[in-house]
Automatic annotation (TrEMBL):
It comes from Candidatus Phycosocius spiralis. This is Endoribonuclease L-PSP/chorismate mutase-like domain-containing protein. It holds the Pfam family YjgF_endoribonc. PANTHER family: ENDORIBONUCLEASE L-PSP_CHORISMATE MUTASE-LIKE DOMAIN-CONTAINING PROTEIN, ENDORIBONUCLEASE-RELATED. Gene3D superfamilies: RutC-like.
Amino acid sequence: MSEIEARINRMGIVLPNPPAPVASYVPFIRIGDMIHISGQVSRGATGDQLGKLGGDLSLEQGQAAARVCGLNLLAQLKVACDGNLDRLVQVIKLNGFVNVMADFDSIPQVMNGCSDLMVEVLGEAGKHARSAVGVANLPMGFAVEVDGIFQITSF
C-alpha cells in the first residue's frame, strides 16, 4: 500500500472503484509524465449527486458532489499509476463544471469541495491551478463534473 493510500485510509476515506466511461472516450491518457483524466461526475458509493445548484441542491451539497468527483479522479489516477499513488508528483490543473441555475454564482465555492480534498489528501502536491465554470446542464443531470491533469514520476 502506498503512503498516500495509507494516509487516505487513516482519514477514513475510501477510494471508489474507478468509474467506467459512459460514452466513447477513455478514462485517462498518459503522455510522458503527464496524466490527463477525463471528466469524473458526481457518482459516488452512496448514490449519484444529481440536480442543479441554486435549485435542487445547496452549496454544501454541491461541495460534497465536487468531493465525490475528486475521489473518482484519485481512483482513476491510481489505475493510471499502475496502482501506486506515490508516483504522483503534482496535481497540475482541475477543470470543474457545475450544473447551476442561472442566478447561482458560488461556483468557485462548490469546486472547493474537490480542491480541498486534493490538498487534504496530498498536501503540497495537491495544490493546483483551476477553472470553475457554471453550466446549464451536465450529462445525465449530474451536479458536478471535474477533469484533471496530473504529473507523475516516469516509469
